[in-house]
Amino acid sequence: MPFDRRAVLAGAIGALALPSPRRAFAADEVARVDALIARMTLEEKAGQMTCLADSFRPFNPPNPQAGIQDEKRLAEEIRKGRVGCLFNGIGVAGARRTQEMAVKDSRLGIPLLFAGDVIHGLKTIFPVPLAEAASFDPAMAQRTARAMALEATAAGLHLTFAPMVDIARDQRWGRVVEGAGEDVVLTSLFAAARVRGFQGRDLRRDDSLLACPKHFAAYGAVSAGLEYGSVDISDETLRETHLPPFGAAFAAGALTTMAAFSEINGVPATADRELLTDLLRGEMHFRGFVFSDYTADEELVAHGFAKDDRDAARLAILAGVDMSMQSGLFVRYIPELVKSGALPEATIDVAVRRILYVKTAIGLLDNPFRSLDAQAETTRIATPAHRALARESATRSIVLLQNSGVLPLDPGKRQKIALIGPFGADRANLYGPWAFYGDPDQGVDIATGLRAAMADPALLTVVQGCGVRDHIEDGIASAVVAATAADIVLLAIGESQDMSGEAQSRTVIELPPAQQKLAEAIAAIGKPVVVLLRHGRALALHDAVANAQAVLATWFLGSETGHAIADILFGKADPSAKLPVSFPWESGQEPFFYDRKSTGRPVTDEHQTEYKARFATTDNSARYPFGHGLSFTRFTMSDLKLSDAALRWDRAIEVTAKLTNSGDRAGSEVVQLYIRDRVASRTRPIRELKRIERVTLKPGESRTVRFSLSRVDLEFVGAGNQRIAEPGEFDLWLGQSSVGGLHGMFTLYVQEQGKG
Ligand code: GLC
After folding, report:
1. pLDDT value at position 26?
2. What structural domains does the chain harbor?
3. Fewer CB atoms inside 10 Å of the end CB: C or N, the chain?
4. Residues lining ligand 1, CB < 6 A?
5. Is position 232 annotated as part of the catalytic site?
6. Cβ(493)–Cβ(544) under 8 Å?
C-alpha cells in the first residue's frame, strides 16, 4: 500500500489535524439506503447519478453552453426521478420550488443535492485562492471558507466544487489562480483548512457546505501549461507531488471529489480505473463519491478513448465516476447498458449507494429542505463581518516584492499621488475568475480605497493611461502630465480577470505591451513609482516595472480590494505575505518551481556558468523566489540549533532559531523550514518545504521558533511507489524564503539492535 495517507497528514497538516467531522453510518441509515435502492428502477438509479446545470435559476455560467435543458424539460426530468443534483443555481425560493418538485412529484421523493462553484466567495468575494495562499496562514483560509459556507448555504447550496487543490508548476496555465501554488505541503495545509472551513464540524448543520477537492488528479501538470492538455508523469511524481493535497482534503472529511478533464499517461482521468478506483479508493481510502467534470464523460470520445457516447458512459462508470456532470449520458445509457449486460447493475448500485450515503450524511433524506431557509438568506449573506474578514484576508495576501523605502506612505503628509493604469479605478476586474455570484458594483476599487484613506482625497489624480491590452488615444500623454505634477506615482497594471482562470493558458506571462509602454513612459519622468500588480499567476516582470521603487503583488483581492491596498500603502497594515509561486525572469523558464532537481551540472558559482544547467540568456533561478515577501520592518534570524545532529529512525529532532524584529515597527514574518536529502535512490529536490510558522513581533522583540522533524518528513516515493526514507545526510534551512536562511545539517540513522 504505497500511498500512506497518515504519512502525508503527519507531515503536512500536523497543526491542523482536528477530529474529522466524518461519521460512520448508523445501521438504520445503511438499512434505509439499501431499502431505497431496492425500490429504485434502473432509470431512477441513473437519475441519482446525474447532475445538471440549474436552468431554473440561470446566470452567466462559467462553462460552455452544452447540454442546457430548458425549464420545462428539466422539470419533467426531475419529476421522473431522472436528476440527482443541480448545480450553479442560487436562491432559496427557487431551490424550494425545485426541491418540492423532486420530493413531492417524483415516485420516490429523493431530495436533490444543490451544488455550486463557490471558489472564493458567493456575494462577499474573498481574494482568489492563490492570493490567500500567499498569507501562508491556513487558519485564515479556514475562516474565510467558513464565511463562504455561511453565505452559500444561506443561498440554498449544499456543496461547493472547491477547494481546487491542483499543484500548479507552470504559470502559463490559467487555473493556477484557483489553487495554493507550486508547493505540495503548502497546498496540503490549505486543502485541509478549506475543507474544514467549508464543512464545519457537523455535516448535518444547515450551514455546513460539502467540499469537493478537485481535480483528481494532476490536472496542474498539463504539458506546457496548455489547458485541458495531456499529463505525462511518473507514478512516483503523481504520488509525491499531486496526490498529498487530496489525501489531506479527504482526511479533513471531504466526501466528494471531481475527476479531471485531462489524461494521465494516455488515459483520461474520467475513464481511468487505476486512478479513480485502485488508487483513490484502494490506496487513499476515499469513501465518498466522484463527480465527472463538466461533460468530461462525453469528451472521452474527443479524447479518442471512447468510440461513442454510450461507450463513454460505460467507461466512466466502470472507472469509478459516480455522478455525471451536465452531459446526461448516464441517465440516457445506463438502463440499456445494464439490460444488455454491458454494465453490471451491482456497479450502478455501488455508485447510487455512495451518493445516497452523502445525502444521508448531510441530513438531506431526513430534511429535504435543509439549507433552504429564507430567513438565513436575508441575514447571513454579504454581512459587515464578512466584508471585514475579506479586507483582513486581502491585506494578508498582498506580497511586498521590493521596496526602496518609498513605502509605507505617510497618510498625513500632503503629497500629490497619481494613480495611473487600467486598474486604478476599474471595478470590473476586482474579483478574479470564478466569482460569478458576486455583484461587480459592490467591490471597492483602488481609487475609492485610496480616497477613503487619504487626509485630503483631492490630492489623488486618477488617469487610465492605457487599456488592459490596447493603447488609448493620448492615454500616455495624459498619464505623463499627471505623473509630472505628482510627488509619487502608483501604477495599477497587470492581468484582467478574463486573462486568468479556466481556458486562459498564456504563452507569455508578461504584461501586455501597451501597459509596459505606459510604465516605461512614467518611469522616464523620474518620480518614485510604486507598482500595484493585478494578476492570477506569477508574471515575468521587466525593465521599468521590475525597476520600480516598490512592487506589490496584489493578485485579485475581491470585494475589499481598494481598502486592503490602501491599508498596506499607508502602513495601516504591515505586509506579511509570501509568494506561493515563483516569479521567473522569463516566461520561457516555465514550468519553473523552487523544489527543482540539482541536475548533474548545477550552477554553483555565478562566474562559472558555461556548460551548466541554465538557459543561455537567463539564470535558472527566480526573480522573486517561492516564499519571498518583504515587510515594512526588518526581521533577522539567528541561533539555529538542532536538538541532535543525528535523527534516530523512530525519533524526532527539534529545530529552533531566534527571530528578531530589528526594525522600528511591528510586523509579521513567516519562518520556513526546508530540507534537502543529499543522496537518495531517487534524485531529490534542492529544497523541500516542510514547516511554516507565522510570527508577529513588536519592534525589538525576539522569539524562539520551534519545529520538530521526524523520519516521516523525510519520506519520498521510491521504487515500486513505496513511500520510504533513507538513512544519510540532510541539509536543513530555517529562513524567510526558499533562498538563503540559517543552514544546518543532520543525519538520519537506523539504530543497531541493542544500541541507542
Ligand atoms: C468547470 C471546471 C470545474 C467546475 C465545473 C462546474 O469546467 O473544470 O472546476 O467546478 O466545470 O462549473
Report:
1. 77
2. 27-378 (3.20.20.300), 384-589 (3.40.50.1700), 635-748 (2.60.40.10)
3. C
4. 62-63, 117, 161, 214, 293-294, 502
5. no
6. no
